[in-house]
Amino acid sequence: MTKRLVQGNEAVFLGAIKAGAGYFAGYPISPSSEILAQASGYAAKHPEFKFLQEEDEIASANAILGASLAGAKSFTATSGPGFSLMQEAVGYGHKVGIPAVIVDVMRVGPGTGMPTMPGQGDILQARYGSTGDYTSFVFYPSTVAECFEYTIHAFNAAEETRSPVILLSDAFLGHLNEVVDLDTIDVPVVNRTLEPLASGGTRLFSGVATYPDGEPATADSDEFIRQYLENRENRLKISEKYAFYEYGWNKDSDTLVIAFGITRRVAQPLAPHFALFRPIRLWPVLGNELTEIAARYKKIVVIEGSDGQYASVIEHMLLRRVERVPLLGGRMSLEAVREGLDRIGLLPKESEPGSATAADASASASVA
Amino acid sequence: MSAKFIVIDGVGGQGVRVIGSTMASLLAVMDYHVTLLFDYDSSVRGGMSEAFLTYDREPISNFVVECADVVVRLADRGPMHLTTDYVIADCDLIKPGERGEEIPFLQLGVDKFGRDLFGNMIALGRLLCVCDVEFTDDALRAVLPKKYVEENVAAIKYGYGLDESSIKAIEPEQAASSFAAKYAREVLAGTAPDKAVELAAAR
Description:
The structure holds 2 protein chains of 2 kinds. By secondary structure, chain A is α/β, with parallel strands linked by helices. Chain A contains 13 helices and 16 strands. Helix content of chain A is 36%, strand content 20%. The longest helix of chain A has 19 residues, at 221-239. Chain B is α/β, with parallel strands linked by helices. Chain B has a single domain (4-201), classed as Pyruvate-ferredoxin oxidoreductase, PFOR, domain III (Pyruvate-ferredoxin Oxidoreductase, domain 3). Helix content of chain B is 41%, strand content 21%. Chain B is built from 8 helices and 6 strands. In chain B, strands 2-3-1-4-5-6 form a 6-stranded mixed beta sheet. Chains A and B meet through β6, α8, β9 and α13 of A and α1 and β2 of B. β9 (176-180) of chain A pairs antiparallel with β2 (33-40) of chain B.
């Protein structure tokens, strides 16, 4: 492959194929539908890849879990309203331990909301959407190349954690075309970790609490807690391998901007004025990295496409005040960022309005 | 060069995607860094359809265009909070105070190439000219849709060759805004998109 224009949603699909995905089930919903369309077209030419258009998102999520139990690396793609419908399956996947990837191309909610406008309102849903306690892995790229790259990481993390992993995107990133050469992106692929059903032995996948021998443990708190803590520790240990973030811009500034996905892109022209921390792995929160970096700055401001979902998380984690610049109603733009910064008294006087290129930034950023 | 910011403004079915994709692919072939973002309303047929195209010799970070160098306006459904230096518009679409030109693209498509849809390529040619993009026929052929390649090349070159005096000499017969209104009305009435384009373009 050479350099060519690739759409964000297409890059996600190609990343899934690169990661070894063999099954897609989904229900079309803007702005994720191109992923479903790609999967459909690919399946028509590659009989080894299975595609199913389901009747809804509940069926889609359960189908990919079933396919995963049967041995296939599987995934689905949806947007906020569909993701809400998938949450029961997410919890089930966590409890039983089923690798799968759910792509959520976020739009403005709640409800049907603004179907084609970009939002970031599923940050907490991606972590806490299902019932009970579980340890979610959530990645959020911000370029088309990263859509490809972090889809592979999402599949890898799903295999290692044996859980549904969430890949977040948004309407703008999903519909953005950039010139990329995906062949230059080399991410080692983690092989299937789960033996398929019918390969011998007994496998319980009812979703209820059980002892290791399969007997119900539905009234044994100690056993439940033991398993939960073991699971949590295991997943947090695995998360150390997936500590992806970007730290850069003007590190000498006294203000740290936290932005991710689309908001990081639109805020780029402010690079000379602020330091940037961009979590690519949103969950588990990059606690150690963020604590260490945040300590260097007098002020912290989170720019995000929700009314402070991630800001609240950061504030709670750091136990210090975090300023908020919410970009609502799909208005993801530098102008909206500047208005938000102005409202909280953090707008740099000398920065000029308008778009800018990466080359305009005086400080480069590095991805860890 | 510094980055160029282009916005193509129209309604679904008018060719915003074709113009945006063709120009972006052409620039990519010419080794530019390019970002192309499609934004559209949930009512795709007859609803707002925008393309935000940025190109540069440097990598592009912010791809959301708020201050465009050039807007191509095929219908006035444009994004809010957008300013522009220059507008290339179909007839009756330049707003008071804007600097730009009005060209009856659809009409030219029919008059010069037999189909209104070639108006899109004429608009693309004019856009390439205004942006000073110099291209080769080979580069163009490589990125055009596979149908009607030669006709499209000819239409793009026709648009590229338009100048102030030739634009002034064109007598517009129908404004694009009335096309957009007719098109939307047809689609809402249940007419198939292809047929709706035909009916809307009929004088």
